[in-house]
Design brief:
mainly alpha, Ammonium transporter fold, 17 helices, about 70% helix
Length: about 450
C-alpha cells in the first residue's frame, strides 16, 4: 500500500542534508545585508505611510459631519505637501553636514546618490542601504508630524493657511530639531535618546498643535460663559475606531524599521522585540484608559479608549527596543492614564483640541521620552529633560511666529458664519454626507 507520508519524508531528508552542508557560522554577504536593510526601510516606510490613512479616518470620525470632507482634504494635501518639502529642503537640512551642530544644508534639493552601490564590483557596506529607501522612510515621519496638527485645529481653520503652516513645519521646523538628534547634532552628542520619535515626531507635532490651538481659539460654542464644556460629538465612532487600528498597525513600521538594519540575526531579534513591545504598550494604554474612565465617569468612553491605545504607542516610541514586554505594557498603561486626565485638563484651560492630539502626542511624548532611562542604562533623566525642553522651546517659538504671521496676513480662522455652516460647504462647496446634510435639506425644502 502506498505510504502517503513518503514524499514528506523524502523532502525532510533532503532539507536535512542541505542544512548539513551550510556552516553554522555562515553570515550573509555585504550585498545581501544591503538588500535586507533597504527592504526594511521600504516596508517600514509604506507601513508608516498607511498611518496617513489612519489619521484621516480617526479625524474624520471625531469631527462633526459638516467638517468631514474638509479634514479629509487636509490630510491628503498635508501628506503631499510634506513629501514635496522634504525633497526640496527637509532631508538635507536634517541630515547633510550637521556634524554635531544645529542644522544641515539649507534650501538643498535632495537627489539619490547610489553610484558607489551600483559600481561594478563595489564592496557593499553591510550597514548600508539604498539612498531612496532612507529618504522615503524619513519622509513619512514628517508627514506624521503634520497630521498631529490637523486634528487639533480642525473645524475652524482655513485650508490654505493650514497648508502654509504645514510647509514651514515640514521644510524648516521639523528637520532642524530632528537634526539635533537623528542628524548627528548637539543633542545626539549629549546622549539624548529617542529611538523612533516620542519627542522628535510626536511632541514636535504636539507643541505645534498646542500653539496653533491657543492662537486660533476654540470652536464656536465649545465653552459656556460659566466655563463648562459643551459636548460636540464626532460623526462616526466606528470610523475613528478603524483609524485607530490602522495607526496601531502602521506603528510596527514606525518603531520596528527604526532599528535601521536587518542584515544580522541580532537585528532580526531586536525588531521582533520592538514589535512585541509596541503592541503591548498599545494594549496597556487602551486597557488602562478603559478602566480609568469606568472608575472616574462610571462609563467606558470609547474615544478615550482609542486615545489610550494611541497614548501607549506614543509612550513606547522613544524606547521600544530595551524594555521587557511587561515593562512596555506598564509604560503604555501610564500613557493611557495620562491621556484620560490630560483631555479634561486642556478643556479647563479652554484649549480646544478636537481629537485630543495634544494630550496623546505631546503629553505622552514627553512621558515616553522621560521613561527611557528606566530601561536603558545609557540614558539619563537630565539629558532627556534637556532634549524635551530644548525641542519644546524651539517648536513653540517657531510655530508661534508662523501662526501669528499667518493670522495677521492671510487670516487663519473661518468666519462665524462659515464655521456654523461647516468647513465642507464653506471651503469646498460639497459635503461628505450630502444625503444627510444641509444640501439635502435645501433640496427637500
Amino acid at each position: 500500500m502506498l505510504d502517503k507520508s513518503m514524499p514528506k519524508k523524502i523532502i525532510a531528508a533532503g532539507v536535512g542534508a542541505l542544512l548539513l552542508t551550510v556552516p553554522a557560522s555562515a553570515e550573509v554577504t555585504g550585498e545581501t545585508a544591503y538588500i535586507f536593510n533597504t527592504l526594511l526601510f521600504l516596508i517600514g516606510g509604506f507601513l508608516v505611510m498607511w498611518m496617513a490613512a489612519g489619521f484621516a479616518m480617526l479625524e474624520a470620525g471625531l469631527v462633526r459631519s459638516k467638517n468631514v470632507a474638509d479634514i479629509c482634504v487636509k490630510n491628503v494635501a498635508l501628506y503631499a505637501l510634506a513629501s514635496i518639502m522634504w525633497m526640496l529642503m527637509g532631508y538635507n537640512l536634517m541630515y547633510s553636514g550637521v556634524d554635531g551642530g544645529y542644522a544641515g544644508a539649507f534650501f538643498s534639493l535632495w537627489n539619490p546618490d547610489d553610484a558607489a552601490a551600483l559600481a561594478e564590483g563595489a564592496a557593499h557596506d553591510p550597514a548600508g542601504y539604498a539612498a531612496g529607501s532612507d529618504f522615503f522612510f524619513q519622509m513619512v515621519f514628517v508627514a506624521t508630524t503634520a497630521s498631529i496638527v490637523s486634528g487639533t485645529v480642525a473645524e475652524r481653520i482655513k485650508l490654505f493657511p493650514f497648508l502654509i503652516f504645514t510647509a514651514v513645519l515640514a521644510g524648516l521646523i521639523y528637520p532642524i530639531q530632528g537634526a539635533w538628534k537623528w542628524g548627528g547634532g548637539w543633542l545626539d552628542a549629549a546622549g539624548f535618546a529617542d529611538f523612533a520619535g516620542s519627542t522628535l515626531v510626536h511632541s514636535t507635532g504636539g507643541w505645534a498643535a498646542l500653539v496653533g490651538a491657543i492662537i486660533l481659539g476654540p470652536r464656536l460654542g465649545r465653552y459656556t460663559k460659566e466655563g463648562k464644556v459643551r459636548p460636540m460629538p464626532g460623526s462616526s465612532l466606528p470610523l475613528a475606531t478603524l483609524g485607530t487600528f490602522i495607526l496601531w498597525f502602521g506603528w510596527f513600521g514606525f518603531n520596528g524599521a527604526s532599528q535601521l538594519a536587518l542584515g544580522t540575526a541580532a537585528d532580526s531579534i531586536a525588531i521582533s522585540n520592538i514589535f512585541v513591545n509596541t503592541n503591548m504598550a498599545a494594549a496597556g494604554g487602551a486597557f488602562a484608559a478603559a478602566i480609568v474612565t469606568k472608575l472616574v465617569y462610571k462609563k467606558v468612553d470609547l474615544s478615550m479608549v482609542l486615545n489610550g491605545a494611541l497614548a501607549g504607542l506614543v509612550s513606547i516610541t522613544a524606547g521600544p527596543d530595551t524594555p521587557l514586554p511587561y515593562q512596555a505594557t506598564i509604560i503604555g498603561a501610564v500613557g493611557g492614564v495620562l491621556v484620560v486626565f490630560a483631555v479634561p485638563f486642556f478643556d479647563k484651560l479652554k484649549i480646544d483640541d478636537v481629537v485630543g492630539a495634544v494630550s496623546v502626542h505631546l503629553v505622552c511624548g514627553i512621558w515616553g521620552t522621560m521613561a527611557v532611562p528606566f530601561t536603558y542604562a545609557d540614558a539619563s533623566f537630565g539629558t532627556q529633560a534637556l532634549g524635551v525642553a530644548a525641542i519644546g522651546a524651539f517648536v513653540i517659538v517657531t510655530s508661534a511666529i508662523t501662526w501669528f504671521a499667518l493670522k495677521f496676513t492671510l487670516g487663519i480662522r473661518l468666519s462665524d458664519e462659515e464655521e456654523e455652516l461647516g468647513s465642507d460647504l464653506a471651503e469646498l462647496g460639497l459635503e461628505a454626507y450630502p444625503e444627510f446634510g444641509r444640501g439635502s435639506q435645501k433640496l427637500s425644502a
